[in-house]
Amino acid sequence: MTRRSVRRSARVLGVASGSAALVLGLAGSALACDIKDFSAEARCDGAQGVIVVTDSDASATDATVGVFLEGDGGVETKVGEQPVKGSKEGARISFSEQWKPNATYRVHVKARNVDRDIKPDLVTPSTACRTESRPPKQTASATPKPIPTVSATVSASASAPASAPPGSATPSPAPSRSSSAPAGTPGNAPSPAVGDSNLAETGADSHTPLIVGVAAALVVVGGGAVYVGTRRRGAKRGA
């Protein structure tokens, strides 16, 4: 083997090694974690607001994601921090945050060769998540009140017994003077007192005035008849 052949072989091996190193370097750079593999957005999970960060790093490099709310005057409030391991399909992590409309959040990613913020900063939508659903207001015309009919009112009042006012005693039925009382049983009328006459017992129902009037009329008629008879007798004697 000549020296020329050895040099040629060494040159070929060097070129091949350099090419392999370049290819491996490019492949490693392509598979390395990059800030461009991360994205963030504000969403609504029902009534709860969330911030979702997606890691599309195909190298599956472990990273840590932190979310910060930017306030007035550059003051920041830390929302939370979570670990994430990327995938080609995209690995997602969520931060519960009841965000307000048009709020600004800074999302920071820290990995083996990454320590940067996601740019641009996250700005929430102009409409907040709905906290509750209110039923529509009902107008007076939508729910008319039922009008009771006269017949229903009359029947209800007729069927309901009249209640006596509190404190008043219920009147007891008056004793009836029945003619069907057994014989020998004293009636409800008061018995005459000892020594009283039938006139005093009957009172206004007595026929005494009528009897007295008839007797007086008979006396007058009798007296007149006697007077007329006496005059006739005297006239006959004088003739």
Strand content bin: 15-25%
Number of strands: 8
| Multimeric organization | single chain
Mean pLDDT: 73
- Contiguous low-pLDDT stretches (5 residues minimum) are 21-30, 152-162, 174-187, 193-204
CATH class of the domain at 35-123: Mainly Beta
Structural class: alpha+beta
* Biggest beta sheet summary: 5 strands, antiparallel
Q: From the 3D structure, determine the CATH topology of the domain at 35-123.
A: Immunoglobulin-like
Helical percentage: 25-40%
The number of helical elements comes to 4
CATH-derived architecture of the domain at 35-123: Sandwich
Q: Which geometry do the CA atoms define?
A: rod-shaped
Query: Could you spell the SSE succession in H and E letters?
Result: HEEEEEEEEHHH
Termini gap: 231 Å
Annotated CATH homologous superfamily of the domain at 35-123: C2 domain
Rounded radius of gyration (Å): 65 Å
Please tell me about this protein's structure.
The protein is built from 4 helices and 8 strands, in the order H-E-E-E-E-E-E-E-E-H-H-H. It is rod-shaped, with a radius of gyration of 65 Å. The protein has helices spanning 3-31, 150-159, 198-202, 208-238; strands at 38-45, 48-55, 62-70, 76-85, 91-96, 104-110, 115-117, 122-123. By secondary structure, the chain is of the alpha+beta class.
